[in-house]
Amino acid sequence: MGIKRVVLLPDIHHPHHNKEAIKAVFQFIRYFKPHAVNILGDAMNMDAVNHWKQEKGSKKYFEGKRLLKEYESFNNEILIPLEKILPEDCEKTFMFGNHEEWINLPSCMVSLY
Question: Per the structure, how many domains does the chain have?
Fold first, then answer.
């Protein structure tokens, strides 16, 4: 293979992302037909486990059901539509950013139910 076409998607911050920008990126992906797509981190804002809000005394941010809804929303609004437009043999990589890593903080270890 000669030149490899790669799309990098950094810092989406779903659900606070610019929907029109994502729409434009997806339109470009349809045209570009990349060999690889890399989601580079902070794809999700992770509001349900935002430790900055915990420090302000707001414990509601650690509800596991809210976290599951955030994952489901990200999957439905970003990942599934992206998967539908990618070439079948496209290599996909998802990297955690600091927002995704928040789920691993000791203060964020909560029951999902």
Answer: 1
